[in-house]
Amino acid sequence: MQLRLFTILFLCFLGVNSKAESYPEVVFDNSLVKGTYARSIVNYSGDSWVENVQKNLLVSDSLFFTPGNALSLKYISSEMGDWDVLIKYSRQKFHYRVSFDDILSLKIFVGSAGTKAENLPSISIQQGMNQSVSIPLGDYIEDYNHSSWMSVKIPLKEFAGLNTDHNISGVILRQHHSSEVTNQLFLDQIEFLPTKYSEAPLTSNAVLSKATAYGKHVDLQWQVPLTPSIRYVKIYRSLDNKEFKAVAIRPTYMLRSLDYVPVLDKKYYYKIAWVDYNYRESPFSDVLEVEPKQLNEDQLLDLIQLANVNYFVENYDINSGMYMPYRMKDKAVVSVRETGGAMLSMLVGVEKGFVSKALFLSRVKRIVGFLGKAQNNKGFFPAYFDGRKGLPLYLDDIPRYDVQATSSLMEALLVIRQYLTTDAADENKLRADITQLWERLDWRGVTLPSDPLVLRSAIDMVDEYFTFDPLVGINGGLNAYMLAIASTKSSLPPEAFANALKYRFEKPRGRNSIRRMGNDHETNLGDSLNLGMDSEKVLVSVPGQDSIFKVASAHDTLMYGIKLPFGNYTTSLLDMYRPFNTINPNLSKVGEYDLKSVLQKYTQVAKRRDNEIGVGTSNSDIWGFYQYRDSIGTFRINPAIAISSMFLDESRSKRSMYAMYNQFGEYLFTEYGFRAWMDLRTDDVSDEYIANNQSNLAILLENARTGLIWNLYQAIPEIRSAEQRIFKK
Known about the structure:
Layout: E1 26-28, E2 36-37, E3 40-46, E4 49-50, E5 57-60, E6 70-76, E7 81-88, E8 102-110, E9 122-127, E10 130-131, E11 135-136, E12 150-155, E13 170-174, E14 183-194, E15 207-214, E16 217-223, E17 230-238, E18 244-251, E19 256-260, E20 268-276, E21 288-290, H1 297-314, E22 333-335, H2 336-352, H3 357-373, E23 384-386, E24 391-393, E25 400-402, H4 403-419, H5 425-439, E26 447-448, E27 451-455, E28 458-460, H6 477-486, H7 495-502, E29 503-506, E30 537-540, E31 548-552, E32 557-559, E33 562-564, H8 573-577, E34 589-590, E35 593-594, H9 595-613, E36 625-626, E37 636-637, H10 639-644, H11 650-668, E38 669-670, E39 673-674, E40 678-679, E41 684-685, H12 691-705, H13 708-715, H14 717-726
Antiparallel strand pairs: 1-14, 2-5, 3-7, 4-6, 5-6, 6-14, 7-13, 8-12, 8-14, 9-10, 9-11, 9-13, 15-16, 16-19, 17-18, 17-20, 20-21, 22-23, 23-24, 25-28, 26-27, 29-31, 30-31, 32-33, 34-35, 36-37, 37-40, 38-39, 40-41
Helix pairs in contact: 1-2, 1-12, 2-4, 2-12, 3-5, 4-5, 4-6, 4-13, 6-14
């Protein structure tokens, strides 16, 4: 059966404001990989000892409180020694702060017969470099035993030294009383909970709506009633419709889940239950049956795009409609830059039938309405807003209007304007509102004061002449130049596009004249080019500030048998791929450079380099390392890098796609697509997703398959005119 365009996969379109895979107050619920828990750090000294592998706690897959695993803590507490274990709060997109009205809750199973309550460790809370007082766990267990899971609940007001203004970074278990035995505990569901929560009994049966098999993943969908005491959805699986095993839990704000099954062509049976705050379960749902079959190539590509689109369907702010990169208690942070990728991804979803057009239009209308009232300068927006209040947010405390972020958003809106072709009143108004946002952008007003061909990445809120990094190199800055040249109100000359490739800018050594953008997701290629000392430098004067040098960026470098026109690089290939979400690389011939050919060379070098590093795998089809530091550092592989390269090298990318999905799909691929990374050296996997990854995959795969976004972008009248002036025939 073809995996096609199933609207049923998106019951979550009803407006649920989703987060990620776990509640932000949860420090540990499950390890995403088996064996060891990489987010733990074990230390011991003297005659004390803690079982570990490479300083990490072991994971128990057979004994756990919530599926599918728990932490194993085996230790010896000696009078002549000491030990401690840090369990890190590692959800990068969550910033969780506690309240003194909360409690620290965890589940413990004592697996060693000789362990007494006083032999249990003590626990403290870490906030950055600070630690609270350490409190004995045994003092907060009412019915101590060796035969069942026990609850530990400690009021946070008991933790002296805790600061409710600071984010939580982890909890620390440490040696308390010494003992002569080897102790073993199993730990699960370490979380912060309110002192009071709804305890309404769950008397109704859970509702499992759909179970659909896509290769080794079974898509489960459910409907959750508005019962405040429901906290989790617990998923059960069976091979015989008799013995059911709990295989996963999901928060109630997620209305679907992908369950990985090890064997195809076999029947599986599923049922679910609601779970309350005390982990009591509701009556089961009806049982649904599926029989997974092997996916063909188109079906697998559809599944990957579907999941990546779903990430943006669920992760948004209901007030502004914009994408939410972070979640905080007190504000709804929304990203201008990443909302552009979110909208284009959802447009792909509309065209493929993953997303209803009505839902898409509703989201875009909300975004455009929000932007029409939002604070701006020369039409440009800050990088982040508080979606609830409509006020700018400056996450690095540097107030600025972000040119590159606004460009990412605006090109998406122009593509949407081109996509909407009916004469319906709501579409006419939306097109007009987008045009109004587009035409108020003053591109000439955001160039370098000393060079009208060079765009700045941002303008300062107080001093608009302050020089942020110029936009240069093969990265998202090229999208800004395309829009600036296409402008009908304040256009730049077409040579500005080639100029952004031809030159880069340097600070004099020991000087700090340029304030950097400070973006976690993109870095200008020019930042990492390896230029020779004999490169011609031109002094660029900046009134009232230090000077910068304009330097030729061409620097042929031979690496791995391939000549690179712009020298070595150390950034992610996704930064170089970003312009071609919209710009068709087959048309991109600028001056002496064929940009598609340039990209292919850098992609080949990346693969050869990654294969030579080869940390954690001997499979040459698995490549896309990033964040590698040194021979003993971390080597993380980002699945989006190799798979997104399909628009450059179809066969190589597809081999990578199959290798990633088949070898690591159980851990890496979920209802939101591929996770941000996997560390092949430590068997660690991210519990986060990066918007840049998800949008590149959804959009570039569609461009490689149908050219959808490329064709729409090229059909925009202003863009078509600009491309005719920029690109050689």
